[in-house]
Amino acid sequence: MGSLSPQESNINSSPTDMPSALDPVEFRRQGHMMVDFIADYYQNIEKYPVLSQVEPGYLRKCLPESAPDNPEPIESILQDVQKHIVPGLTHWQSPSFFAYFASNVSIAGFLGEMLSTGFNVVGFSWVSSPAATELESIVMDWLGNLLTLPKSFLFSGNGGGVIHGSTCEAIICTMVAARDQMLRQIGLDNIQKLVVYGSDQTHSALQKACQIVGINPNNFRVIKTTKSTSFALSPESLKLAISSDVEAGLTPLFLCATVGTTATTAVDPLDSLCQVAKYYGIWVHVDAAYAGSACMCPEFRHFIDGVEGANSFSLNAHKWLFTALDCCCVWIKDPSTLTSSLSTNPEYLRNTATDSKQVVDYKDWQIALSRRFRAMKLWLVLKSYGAVNLRNYLRSHVKMAMLFEGLVSTDRRFEVVVPRVFSMVCFRVSPSAAIIISDDEINVENCINEVNRKLLEGINASGHAFMTHAVVGGMYVIRCAIGVTLTEEKHIAMAWKLVQEHADAILMKNNI
Amino acid sequence: MGSLSPQESNINSSPTDMPSALDPVEFRRQGHMMVDFIADYYQNIEKYPVLSQVEPGYLRKCLPESAPDNPEPIESILQDVQKHIVPGLTHWQSPSFFAYFASNVSIAGFLGEMLSTGFNVVGFSWVSSPAATELESIVMDWLGNLLTLPKSFLFSGNGGGVIHGSTCEAIICTMVAARDQMLRQIGLDNIQKLVVYGSDQTHSALQKACQIVGINPNNFRVIKTTKSTSFALSPESLKLAISSDVEAGLTPLFLCATVGTTATTAVDPLDSLCQVAKYYGIWVHVDAAYAGSACMCPEFRHFIDGVEGANSFSLNAHKWLFTALDCCCVWIKDPSTLTSSLSTNPEYLRNTATDSKQVVDYKDWQIALSRRFRAMKLWLVLKSYGAVNLRNYLRSHVKMAMLFEGLVSTDRRFEVVVPRVFSMVCFRVSPSAAIIISDDEINVENCINEVNRKLLEGINASGHAFMTHAVVGGMYVIRCAIGVTLTEEKHIAMAWKLVQEHADAILMKNNI
């Protein structure tokens, strides 16, 4: 008699009394424990340095070299999280986090994520979980209406919305749609002639999208902006760039216009840019990743005036609309351009609902097949706070930015570099306030940039706040971006005090 | 004295007593409520039809036309979820879900997702949250070691791992790396000459990736497989296809080999495919989305023998490794190919750690800039169950598939269409068992396909189980894919009884 094969022998030796990995009683116990752990984290968050102070490689020194063979209890896992992970976090939910743009969480966003993970349905096709698809279409219309987007962007007006993971994904998908539409006219062989336009303030997601979809690197136009337009893209410059490309025999394809640039929250003038684009027949995508959410307040809506001339529009609800990562809302006027580029129809996904063409299959609106039930978060945020409170939350951040801006203005050593538009203040130690021993204008700029760099380094090393920088028009500026849910006016006052203290030390040391 | 501008007036009218959207006390209360809601959902999950029975458009009829102006309490939101969302779900966590491939959840995966959302750090650069980056590198080495991947794929061997959202993203990124490496040799103008290879069993993600990265649609080779190789890609067929392309002056670029195809879990022979690929200098990506996890069991490891000849390898921990969506683990031998294609270095992200080149910045390993802290889930799953129990969980699913396979074999009306390899059984009502009034072989196949289509429709309409189909070699087959955490042997027995009952009805009706 032959012995069992290793496979059979292993299978037969599996213990049948293994605990279920989704036992509801245990789920409840550990789930409650985790809720308390995270609630405690929020209650204690101000005790941690905002910017993590660890050194590269710290974690390999703390953790074992390989995965454990045997189960560890949740209690000791949570101890490890507290001991080894928390010190290595840069605390994005800290009320003194003013870096980059916020990526804010709320109770409703958190609960929505729990539900989404709990159900863990994969809504690639309508049939694979109808509620996931239908709720997404509905909340995207809801949010579109709150933004008073033109009806042509909504399902109710033959456009439509989809939730992507990121702006880069949104740009890739719309750029591919534009590319294929154009190549159908001019032939595949002309892919190397396609030109994409942005400004020197456009997010790097545009460059990355170009790299991915096969735009010739020589045909990515980074149009220079200046302080005279507050670093917004000038329609005249765009027109010049395009006409020069047309003269050179190239084919203008795609413009990414920005509402709220990363460096300074500049707003590109959509109306006149879309007119130029329309003349040359190029696709306009509006990237309102950060500032788009604010446009649900009537007083900010004018910043997207002209969006009716664009082909697609996106904002990151995971930045300033309380959903937590990830939730990039994308609207498109002609979804068929997207689906004709992104559709695949493998037999194993065929089903009656899809064949009927009466349903949306979101797999054809995005890169991946799989997709998380992100609409749940957005729905919970909209329901749990209501439009009125959401607007007020957004306004409270803007109000705090106004407060910070006011504080900067009271100290003559500082200047606000560009006018504040939303909830971010770009400021710096002013060259005029610092006596630098040089007659050379370039050297003055270099010196003052160095002073500001050191100032920011000092602020961040203190652990009491975290801000980041940008360089615009040759100026090194400090960005104070407000948008974390826990931030209150007192944190703004503390942050300003911190800036002043560090400025005192640096300017004194430099004999300024 | 002028009146206030609308903006100022709105801001000043914001209520200052608005409840915080992240009040820890309220967070705790609502969080506990949600844990109980989801625990109840799991306890009751067998009461719901597995495949949602709603009609397209059902949800618009239930929900208001626009977002509410005012907050709704969590209690009423949860009632809405129960009343309007749950009926529209296809329950992927139901123990009788055997469709597609599972996307399974566990307590540890769920808790990891909670932590990740709670912290909501954005680990695009090391500095933006060092623990997020370092934990990801560590757990990717841990998991790579559990799979006994060659050291060249691990950080400890100058390769490295990254967690993407989906296989499609993994294929896009590796294809772009391969594309750019090749174009640096042959010149940008030759992008239209690049050829990509897969089989007729390769996942549609490959086709989509080709569409996105700008591969000429005429240069996407879908190599036919046959039953004789159990629908695995034949190295000889690959060689023929490549050499014919070379003769035609084209440039072979990329092969996607699959370990565990979607239709039948076929395994492409990595070793000999990689040898062919090496000869022609083409990039090999191994897509082990579903079956890769099983390869941490020694008895399944041989299915990825030869992976040392590949350039990159991916598996979806969100399919069969209990992390919940999304968690696609990707290893790559030469990360510099990836980063040279995907890097962008905007000034606003510059920092000392990056400049030192001592750290990993995962933004340059993936499509998006933003990224969720997915490593937390994988870490918690590995720690909470340990390698021993994880292997046993995987084996328990395989064992249940063996059980189902055995049941099918006992009923002479049925046949197992291809040998079971992992935890999926492909079966159908056998043509030989059905007396069909036709001498024409093609008609027999058509008739039997129709019988099986109707059988599957009946099973799914019952709500008691959900399976999906594939068509291979002209045969319509029913796929019973086992992998949901809650599935036990009794559910397999019930599923088989359901299949038999529906077969009785259909075969009787057809006088068979």
UniProtKB/TrEMBL annotation, chains A, B:
Any GO MF annotation of the entry: pyridoxal phosphate binding
Sequence ranges of Polar residues compositional bias: 1-17
Modified residues (N6-(pyridoxal phosphate)lysine): 319
Keyword check for Chloroplast: no
Keyword Lyase: yes
Cofactor field: pyridoxal 5'-phosphate
Any Pfam family matching the protein: Pyridoxal_deC
Keywords from the named record: Decarboxylase, Lyase, Pyridoxal phosphate
GO cellular component: cytoplasm
Renumbered residue ranges of the record's region Disordered: 1-22
UniProt record, GO biological process: amino acid metabolic process; carboxylic acid metabolic process
Leader sequence residues: none
InterPro entries tied to this protein: Aromatic_deC, PyrdxlP-dep_de-COase, PyrdxlP-dep_Trfase, PyrdxlP-dep_Trfase_major, PyrdxlP-dep_Trfase_small, Pyridoxal-P_BS
Homology family: Belongs to the group II decarboxylase family.
Listed name of the protein: Tyrosine decarboxylase
